[in-house]
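agent: user wants the full assembly modeled, not chains individually. Plan: 1) parse entity lines 2) check alphabet per entity 3) run joint structure prediction 4) return tokens. Steps 1-2 passed, two entities, 697 residues total. Proceeding.
--- entities ---
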Amino acid sequence: MNILETRELEYQYPDGTRALRGVSVALRTNNKIAFVGSNGAGKSTLFLHFIGILRPSRGEVLFRGKTLRYDKASLLSLRRSVGMVFQNPDDQLFAPTVAQDVSFGPKNLGMSEAEVEARVRRALKIAGIEELADKPPHLLSYGQKKRVAIAGVLAMEPEVLILDEPLAGLDPAGKRRFIEFLNDLAKRKTIAVATHDVDFAYEWADYVYVLHRGKVVAEGEPKEVFQEVTRANLSPPRVLEFYEALAELGLATPGIQPSNMFELVRSVASLGVRVALAEDNLKEGEAVSLEVEKGRILAKPSPGGEASSRVIKALDGRVVVSANGNIPPKGKVYLYPIENFDALAFREALAKHEVDFVASLGSEARLLAEREGIELAPEGAALERCLLKALAGYYALLLLPGSLIEETVKKMRSYLSGTAQPEIEILRDGGDEA
Amino acid sequence: MHIEHVLESYAHSGRLSSVAPQLKLLLAGSALVTTVFSTSPVAPIFIFLAMSTALLLLAGIPHRVYLATLTAPASFTLPVVLLMPFFIASGEPLLTVKLFSHTFVATREGLNEALLLASRVLAGSASLFFIIFTTPTAAIFAAMRSLRIPALFVEMCMLIYRFLFVLIDEAERMLKAQKIRLGYASYRRSFDSFALLASNLFLRSYLRSEHAFAALEARGYRGNLEFSEFGRARLNLSGTLLVTTFSALLAALAYVTRNLELV
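--- prediction returned ---
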């Protein structure tokens, strides 16, 4: 059953603006849902209906399959299950200190002082702002305020979290960090966001609604939907645009629809043509063997003729070769669980395995790395970045919570199914296992 | 760094921050009342010295910071002390100044009146600084609640305190936006721009209040702004006795010295 649903929702603001014109949407449990639309498309208005702040002029909101009623008890039970984070945190924070603000929701749910305190502590921890507990809101940065606003809603432990423009006003690093944080949250909750950041929605969401002038103009999985977003005054995701430009020129395998940078790169790589460095004088048609070295590919003459690569074109110092079979990757991905982390053992592992590149998965791992002064790759798409590096012959290490290892390995394998795979190795307390 | 950062950081980390806020409020409150009702400068001067000592020695506020804070009330007090004796005409003349065709006479009564006013300003300021430098705002609100001040009043104080900073931010942004378009280039334009800013600020405040109310409702607001007080210092008997005794002493001092004049 859908936890929240709307049917033919219409809403007219007192000034006559028809903000919603027959919107029917559903929030399925344990999904990441994005409502995409340009400014004024009706996203925020729709969200205010989800938590019963606005009442539809026509149509209805269904909460757990039943028509939502607007008496106090019904609204309270709705707001216990559905938490909303507003776009501007300054509108939401009102208490003199962060901890007090976060305690407001649980208090309204009528909890005991001990339970309230426990929930506040948990919420601050999840939001990664435990150290801000006693600060007054006006001394915080914008990003920090956003996290406090989220903690204030998380403390009510809702099943569904809806966020209005969660990325607005954040700098690029803050955005990546926030997306990672949303991904952590999405493991336990249904999350719906309203956004006009198409790139974010495309890579992040499981399901997308495109809103335009108060109507749903498209819905479905990101790959199905985003061909059409130009109709809603939005530009297509950059990955998709770039891919299409390449594919139209015959520079990428057609019909793929990559959902991120990794898949985009694979769509080009799987064409079976490479530019390799050649030290010897190679002639066109000559059989060569290819070797991957950190960040470059070397072509060497292979007189035995068993190699499947042949020189297509010889250039000065470089050759274009066919690479039908896959080049055996020399790089590796190490997975390093953050539990029982020991700085010394970690440094030793870095040296022993000649690690070139370290990335982190999840906020916990990121915080650990920051605490330990470990230099990290930019946030976001950590797994894909590591795979790309490994395919290019580097040794990449991914810091992650142990609980995510299984899922991560599965995901990496699925990315690379049917092609040569770099080795994935899990490092644990010095003892290695493949 | 903004002044509110400085104050808030001392209030959080100063050595008196762990003392129950009710006691500090009580102490400063009784000092203020005594100051207002005292008819002689003796008690206010004593309060000023006591509060300053408490701030500098007990709370550990650096001299420079405290002196800098004091310059504001002091700069207002000094001209008053200098000029006020000339404005109370009746009484024993102390000093006569001839300026052009006018004659100004400073009286003994006037001087006493000026000294009383100055001592009150200093004592009152020192008492307020005592609260500001030793007690985080959140603790003040908590103390107000525990002292049974009506919830509506405390909630209003809280919201005002919180949204004051939001309002200032907004006003600063608007002011900048006006300045870069030469809104204050001439005297006339300044009036127009300022009026525009003020009315706009009012409208935006109204909009903001609607958003804030929606946000409160989304978190289950049911008519009162309730939240937890975390780890506030508890009242202890010895502290309460100390503050009560001290307050009584202040009142007694004011009473005993009620007819005492400095000059």
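agent: reporting back. Chain B has a mean pLDDT of 85. The beta strands of chain B are 93-99, 102-107.
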